[in-house]
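Running this now, will post back.
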Amino acid sequence: MVDSAEKQRGYEAQLRDAGVRMTRPRRAILKILAETADHPDAMEIFRRAVALDDSISLSTVYRTMKLLEDKGAIQRHAFAGGPSRFEQADGAHHDHLIDIDTGNVIEFQSDRIEELQNEIAKSLGYDIVHHRLELYGRKRRKR
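Update: finished.
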């Protein structure tokens, strides 16, 4: 498993390879991304970054996220009803359940769902090359 410092160095290398200068604000943003286990939006990343370095601008957050997305280091998710959220791209395949009341994003993996998707594609004469499954739900109330 890759630790957050190594992940941060990887992000830095990708940006340097793209010709981007590594500034203190960018390093703070990369540190946040390397350490996060959730799916923050740009405003949440900005809020966390400003706590580390109050010279960071929201536009720096957006530019950095775009560069990392273009390099394939992070994934942007445009979940319905909310702002784009970001996650590290190096994790194992998983799907998402979005709580429509809280906006929480829950990652899950189901072999049954994967098998069913492959079965459906095969029955229609296709091989799946990529997919993204998003479920939207509301937490059940205890009865």
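The first strand starts at residue 74 and ends at 77. More later if anyone needs it.
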